Amino acid sequence: MEKAGDVQTENLFSISTFDGRTTYEAIIEATKDFDPMYCIGEGGHGSVYKAELPSGNIVVVKKLHRFDIDMAHQKDFVNEIRALTEIKHRNIVKLLGFCSHSRHSFLVYEYLERGSLGTILSKELEAKEVGWDTRVNIIKGVAHALSYLHHDCVPPIVHRDMSSNNVLLDSKYEAHVSDFGTAKFLKLDSSNWSTLAGTYGYVAPELAYTMKVTEKCDVYSFGVLALEVMRGRHPGDLISSLSASPGKDNVVLKDVLDPRLPPPTLRDEAEVKSVIQLATACLNGSPQSRPTMQMVSQMLSQRI
Q1: Which of 6, 35, 133, 161 is catalytic?
Q2: Among this protein's residues, is 161 annotated catalytic?
Q3: Which of 48, 80, 199, 286 to pair with 179, CA 20 to 30 A apart?
Q4: Each residue's pLDDT tens digit, 104-130
């Protein structure tokens, strides 16, 4: 285990608050050498485990699949380390450390009690616990995180895989953007061409015919995510009808809102409408016509 931020010649970084070797051994012991009973999720390139260390600290360990530890997928591993050691924001998951070893390659994160937003929205009882004001705050948190990545980081960072499964919630339902394996650092003097990445249903339409990555790709994904939070499920075909006439106040609230919740109060209704209007603007088919995440973040803060 190495320290996050310390560049090593052999591997890369590590852990900020724990002794590396001791923590490595503690994680192996806490998960019984990554026994499936401690697995709390599966990702594209690895499994996620919950580990309680002897100190009482609970951490999340994202372990890469053995067959993914090759040069191609090692790049995703390095990307996530680079991104998360260079950024600090309350709405972005904290990387505590990592291990790059011939036997195991894994990342260690802070533990967030409520898990992924996608999982919560998919469960009837849990979704009912997340009221309109909480949902608006979740969307604001994601907007603030993306604004920070796009406008406060040098070089700018594009997440490229914004989806409800990559938003984690703490005990107070505060949003934390996670999973930076496909993140791209934009080169200001380059065209930034790349292979296609992201989750089906959230990927900006222009990436179907061009591989040029810009911040506006994240803006589109954010629009999909914001509607999903309001609707309680992926907006699906609703996206095409909304993006066909951006800026027009033609949204019927009952078609967009989660029927599992009671109708919003007058106060909540104004906030919900603001979110839906901004989300719709983010879905504009023309990337240049979408707002920046900085604009979205500021507008959400001002209106709500």
Answers
A1: 161
A2: yes
A3: 286
A4: 788 898 999 999 999 999 999 999 999
